[in-house]
Amino acid sequence: MYLAILAQSTLSVEAMRMAALSCNALVTANGTWQFHKARWIVWKGVLALLVCSVPPCLYTASLHLEDRTYFITLAVALLVAAGVMLIRQRSVEQLTVSPLRWWMYPLACVIGGVSGITGIGGGIYLAPFLYLSRWGSPKQIAGASSVFILVNSLAGLSMQVHSNGWKLEWDVLPLIAAVIVGGILGSFWSSARFTHRFVRWITVIVIIFAALRMLLKYL
Predict the structure, then answer these.
(1) pTM value?
(2) CB 217 within 8 A of CB 15
(3) Within 10 A of 7 (CB to CB), how many other CB atoms are there?
């Protein structure tokens, strides 16, 4: 959603990626801590996925892309994310965590690379496949996704700062503040006012709209 909205602005590509990764880290930092305190994070499985995802994330985050290449890549990534969100994720409450399937490791590499190059945290891709493989309970999967997004976002952000310098423009600071406030309000609304289905469809519509606009502009 951050990238879908930021793509309609006049921010540079580097500033967009940094802003999105910063927002990702802010949103997931508290969630990661809460899941950790509640002992829902299965660190062994999460660390194995991070070992595969962080190196490609660091590499792609260091790349400098032309605007056309970046926005076409981002549009495709957003359309895939929208498609993934529409997949019905059947959750199963289970007491034990299943071993990771072998294909999760190369998948984590791909997701890490996409995270670094676009600024998407990666959890939106990871969670459905964890559900598909019946790896763990919904809370364990949510905890794993939260850690995955946080670490990959910080890795991508640090590499971009190292490679391109600090490109987070002052115009983005209100967005950072809005993310903090929105995170608090969203926690209330998602549980008390809006259904998960409503939030999902609103997000999908915004993402598809922004992606199609990018494709029409840069193809």
Answers:
(1) 0.83
(2) no
(3) 21
Of 73-82, 153-162, 182-191, the one with minimum mean pLDDT is 182-191
Query: In the prediction, which pLDDT does 90 show?
Result: 63
How far is it, in rounded angstroms, from Cα 117 to Cα 48? 21
The alpha carbon of 78 is separated from its chain's Cα centroid by a whole number of angstroms, namely 11
CA 3 to chain centre: 10
pLDDT tens digit sequence for 85-113: 887 666 556 657 788 899 999 999 999 99
State the Cα–Cα distance between residues 154 and 61, nearest whole angstrom.
11
Domain span including residue 107: 2-218
Contact yes or no for 101/41 (Cβ under 8 A): no
Say how many domains are in the chain. 1
CA-based torsion, 180, 181, 184, 189: positive or negative:
negative
